[in-house]
Design brief:
The chain is mainly alpha-helical. Helix 4 runs antiparallel to helix 5, helix 5 packs across helix 6 and helix 5 runs antiparallel to helix 7. It is globular and about 50 Å long.
């Protein structure tokens, strides 16, 4: 359950993120060349099609997976705030897709971390690239851990709709307190990512 303190922390995180992006935008205004097209359809095609990025198959595919790993769960979270009912079959398929996507995102994150660690500090500032990747990795790992703990308590039998959580639940204790601690850690990691977003390489997620 969201507390008053949680709401305050969310507002603070969003304000810090907004201030960070505003600062960067003001810093770049003198160099504005005025050739921004505002082509919304082109932007959507670039984001969801990833044509240019996929010309480099390995990193391109990992980038696309990471992008979808952000967008799809975000859409689900937003839609969950509205009062409508999803058919059980559709909900089960969506749950499976998100579980599989989460695993693919973790693989993509390890791929990017391995590539960045091999690069010299002259190519990218490590703290601007590696730190956000580690935070995202912690977010997904804690999310799966929380799912496993929840299933251990509420539905210990294996379910094909949540294969990762079900697998993890077989190794985890049925501890509501541990589950709450993991959920809180997951929540704070998300807030941390929101706060550092404008100051890292990952700001291009929003800058576009």
């Amino acid at each position: 359950m969201i507390t008053v303190l949680d709401s305050v922390l969310v507002v603070v995180a969003i304000l810090v993120m907004t201030a960070g992006f505003a600062q960067r935008r003001l810093a770049r205004l003198p160099n504005k060349n005025g050739d921004i097209s505002g082509d919304l359809s082109g932007l959507l095609a670039y984001l969801f099609g990833h044509k240019k990025i996929l010309r480099n198959p390995g990193p391109g595919l990992a980038h696309l997976i990471l992008f979808l790993g952000f967008v799809l769960p975000l859409i689900v979270v937003i839609l969950a705030q509205f009062p409508f009912v999803v058919a059980p079959q559709a909900a089960a398929v969506l749950s499976l897709i998100l579980d599989v996507l989460g695993v693919l995102v973790i693989v993509a994150l390890f791929f990017f971390l391995a590539r960045r660690l091999k690069k010299s500090a002259d190519d990218f500032a490590p703290r601007r690239v590696i730190v956000p990747l580690v935070i995202i990795l912690a977010i997904f790992l804690s999310g799966f851990l929380a799912e496993g703990l929840r299933l251990k308590i509420t539905a210990p039998d294996f379910s094909w709709t949540t294969p990762v959580g079900s697998l993890l639940s077989s190794f985890l204790p049925a501890s509501p307190m541990f589950m709450q601690l993991v959920i809180r850690a997951h929540f704070f990691l998300v807030l941390l990512f929101v706060i550092v977003l404008p100051f890292t390489y990952m700001r291009h997620l929003i800058a576009a």
